[in-house]
Amino acid sequence: MNISDPTICLIRPxxxxxxxxxxxxxxxxxGLAYISAALRRAGFGVxxxxxxxxxxxxxxxxxxxxxxGLHLEQIVARISVNADIIGITVVFTHExxxxxxxxxxxxxxxxHASIVVGGEHVTSMPEFSLLTSKADIAVMGEGxxxxxxxxxxxxxxxxxxxxxxxxxxxxxxxxxxxxxxxxDNIDDIATPDWESFxxxxxxxxxxxxxxxxxxxxxxxxxxxxxxxxxxxxxAPNMWLPRWIPRDPVxxxxxxxxYVRRYGxxxxxxxxxxxxxxxxxxxxxxxxxxxxELDIQWQLPTGTRSxxxxxxxxxxxxxxxxxxxxxAPESGxxxxxxxxxxxxxxxxxxxxxxxAAGAGLNVAAFLVVGFPHDxxxxxxxxxPFLDELARRGVNDIGIAFYMALxxxxxxxxxxxxxxxxxxxxxxxxxxxxxTPYPLQSxxxxxxxxxxAYWKFKMFFRFYGAKKRNGEQGLASSLRRAxxxxxxxxxxxxxxxxxxxxxxxxxxxVVLAAFSPRYMSRADERAxxxxxxATYRSIREQKLACNAATLAPADTTELxxxxxxxxxxxxxxxxxxIVPVPARA
Length: 583
Description:
By secondary structure, the protein is α/β, with parallel strands linked by helices. The protein is built from 24 helices and 18 strands. Helix 4 links the parallel strand 6 (83-89) and strand 7 (114-118). Helix 16 (381-391) packs parallel to helix 19 (447-462). It starts with 6 loop residues before the first strand and ends in a 7-residue tail after the last strand. The relative contact order is 0.12.
């Protein structure tokens, strides 16, 4: 490629962080690495600005918490002067305000470049993402095929109207095209382009996304999508309720390549739901064992229980799995039914028995504060936690409910006037893992009530007698704080959780004395029109039948099949006009 040739610049923006009592952490940008690989394989010149990887120790004050990575002006300075297309990944909604400011700065310097945004947040709010920023195009859903077609159209100055899976500016309005069909043969997708990033930098800063391991970490995606319709989850809108696995042998091929290339030894799987088919997981484990790779792997995000029996659990342990997490979300049968969590406690307990019996570290994730929750529903978690401890669960994670955009619960709450898309809304999404929530969407429980129940549930579980003989809160505290004083592999999530909590609390204090990503006055002005913008978008989607009014009573959602609504939304081309500027 000639030095003066136009190039595509891909940007991983700074990560938004706050105090967190969780193993969750910043991770390498897997989605962006897939996009970079797809573009390179298609023959396009690509440069990458990884704000986190290039400045992992840099901090800036944010609307809540802090940003990790290059300051926004530094990102702009690193963009090649030859960039004619600039792509930005936005996975998390709470990072959107920073991206809006970043796009402002990019537009001021690159007035003729096409600015493209994509990721799960953009897929949930494509029209909003364009109308609240100076971006030109939004890519929805899986992006590998879409971006290649998009770049060819932009370079050839061809119309965008026939490109499936995008929304774009057109004559002052936003045109939304129908979605692209899911990719069936995901084994043909190019392997993530980690050469454009720095896996050792992420590892050295403990940005691994799971229980800490001293071995080099590289994230893996073995499957795409999820077949379930949980009302609080954005996955149905992103992927449709459809689970597509890769060939397990090719997944092991990828792992082996990272072992040889980077010396990697720890692989957190970022799948939404990795273990569904028993035959698939058996083939995967057996292939790992056959190659004698001597690796560790984790399922830190939660998985289903149906396919894990004693046979599978023994294979998981033998193949190097160190940690797995289940996500029942609640010990209340009613709550699980209301949120469409199609999981029985009996099958969950059987699976936990198998996993704990095989010697795996087992965690369970729960959520408090769903809109229908009442004190009696949360009280059902207490005996449930006792049973989890007795059967061998080592750790629990408890989060406050977040009203994620693009979910059934979000639409129900918004249409009934219980959500306002403002600064408070974007801040509350960072509160899920904090001790005290900024927002409660639960009529029967105040924010204080939710914090009380969260602490009560933690103390109940960690004070209970465990299957391994550990008993009492003092024993749990000794285990928790052991993770602060050594760099060896953590054996339970609690060690990583406590270290993350201490680190993030210090960072929050230091960020208060750091320069902010933008002034508070400018931030208030930015947010001022956002709710009116989203309200107008929602009204226009209802008017053109791309959406239907959601029920005000969130307990009605479990009677609905979301596929019909999603098919209508994804298949309806529409033009959205902006809200007229106030005089």
